[in-house]
């Protein structure tokens, strides 16, 4: 899915959302997801079912973790040392859909498709600048600091203060060249089914995710959390044993079940009572480089409710 030239953009930092539509700029402190829904309603984009066209116009963009602070009371102790928006979304009335299996490109537009084709043909293609790192990767904590944080997490878990902690490190390095070239190489090596490249004013987001967070189709909700991973092995017999090892791992089964329970609880808050199900539990799915442990949770969204209600 390739898009550009949005009819409207919405960018949220903290309590403030800036909306650009053409040359008109507005600023609001209203609920950003409600603002997004209103902008979509104004765009009057009415997609029709077509299995070959998974995107037929609408909203594409970034929803950051900190956007949740607009809807949940969370402690504000994290350092604000990166200038990234909590939400950055564009609304698009056209798209290029590339089907790699059929080797076919489709151009769809809710306006003048011929004018959009001329616009595309007139775009100047700059010579690509090769991407390269100009320094080594550097973590934001030492091994000793990470170990101490890990021990603290263990104490929180044993005392029942939390169920799960994503103890992450941030690695940074300087670079030169075009971020798109880096994304292409990473995507070729990884082939993650939910990869995405977003270019923002602050830089670029390169996402190489194998995991679907939320699908809402015709009122049906689906989430497929992944917990449990082992690398693929080069020989089929060894690789099969690796998948079996993951399937029988008590640690990975417990971790997967924990996230399934959390997702059931969250989705159950907005779903129609009696329609929350787990049709797949503890399924090993092979990807090009790794085996993943995946479960599937489904539910039904109440009539007249929008996907933003699920996200909220």
Automatic annotation (TrEMBL):
Gene3D superfamilies in UniProt: Anthranilate synthase
Domain Anthranilate synthase component I N-terminal residues, every copy: 1-105
PANTHER family, sorted: AMINOBENZOATE/ANTHRANILATE SYNTHASE (PTHR11236), AMINODEOXYCHORISMATE SYNTHASE COMPONENT 1 (PTHR11236:SF50)
Molecular function GO labels: 4-amino-4-deoxychorismate synthase activity
One GO BP annotation of this record: L-tryptophan biosynthetic process
Stretches assigned to the Chorismate-utilising enzyme C-terminal domain: 143-311
Full protein name: PabB
Superkingdom, taxonomy of origin: Bacteria
Organism field: Shigella boydii
Gene coding for it: pabB
